[in-house]
Amino acid sequence: MKEAVLYFSCILCLSTCKKDETRNNDTSEEEEYVVIEIESDWFEVSYVESKTYVIEEPISSEGNVSYLILGDNRAIMFDTGTGENPPVDGSKIEHIIDQLSPLPVTLLLSHFHYDHNQNIGEFDWVAFPDIPLLQSLVGADSLYDFTNDDLIVGNYPSQVLVNEWLSINTDIDLGGRVIQLVNVTGHSAESIAIIDKTNKLAFMGDFLYNGELFIFDPSDLEAYEESADHLISVLDSDYRLFGAHGSPEVSFEKLQRLKDFLVCIDNGTCKGVNTFIFGFPIVQYSYEGMIIDIFL
């Protein structure tokens, strides 16, 4: 079932997240991305300020977007890409990072689904968010074994060495730049967002992006709503939001709309349509231009 679900989500993302259309509808026109000239036939790289790189895969099946977040002393790579591209000198994404910064890079995954971790083997230093669930699953050898439920599709990666644990809801200094990690459950239990307090940016992963959103179990609706509440409480309208698929930037207003949408589903005001994706039952909800699919 899960392979069909993710395949369908890819099609939906690509069909509903076209960059030009989404930017006109959902993002501020006050600031433009600056395109970076890099050697790549696969990636498009731009920045929203001088130390925040947006790494897009516009021709991938997933329309993925990863982010390289630089401080003065270290860099955070938020997700690794789909791994669908041909390697360049044995590298699928490392050669792109090397063109952007000489800083030591820490890989941090927004969550564990297969389309966010496929180049994990190219990173020498991997950090996990310090979430009790993950701590309980990592042994004394510091190895984490990915499960089928984690990946959803495929069996790679099978495991990873956790080099560092990064605290949740605590300031992390990258050198002249302070970020915080927030555990945003709902899409998956380990999902995190990065809040850049210095530059008023927030990186949302698959919790919120420009496209159809997915809840894989009805019991996760409450967690999704609680996470939206928390993000609204710690962010304000000066923040720029960025998602992991489709057109990168998400309007701040869409975060509040997501919360209203989840409440509408929860209290029964929004009426879903029972339908099927590749033969698997879902309830699909629509609200003010947004769609959420809940798998049964």
Can you offer a commentary on this structure?
The chain is of the alpha+beta class and 296 residues long. It has one domain (19-211, 219-251): Ribonuclease Z/Hydroxyacylglutathione hydrolase-like (Metallo-beta-lactamase, Chain A). The chain contains seven helices and 20 strands. The protein has helices at 2-16, 19-26, 94-100, 132-137, 148-151, 221-234, 252-266; strands spanning 34-36, 44-49, 52-56, 65-70, 75-78, 105-108, 126-129, 143-145, 159-161, 164-166, 172-173, 178-183, 192-196, 201-203, 213-215, 240-242, 249-250, 273-277, 280-287, 290-295. The strands form four sheets. Strands 1-2-3-4-5-6-7-10 form an eight-stranded mixed sheet, with no helix packed on it. A six-stranded mixed sheet has the order 11-12-13-14-16-17. Helix 6 runs antiparallel to helix 7 (252-266). The longest helix has 15 residues, at 2-16. It is globular, with a radius of gyration of 18 Å.
Query: What's the N-to-C terminus distance?
Result: 11 Å
Strand content: 25-35%
* Stretches with pLDDT under 50, minimum 5 residues: 1-30
What number of domains? 1
Lateral strand order in the biggest sheet:
1-2-3-4-5-6-7-10
User: Structural class given helices, strands, pairing?
Assistant: alpha+beta
Please state the oligomeric state of the protein chains shown.
single chain
Radius of gyration, in Å, reads: 18 Å
**Based on DSSP secondary structure assignment, what is the total number of beta strands?**
20
The percent of residues in helical segments reads 10-25%
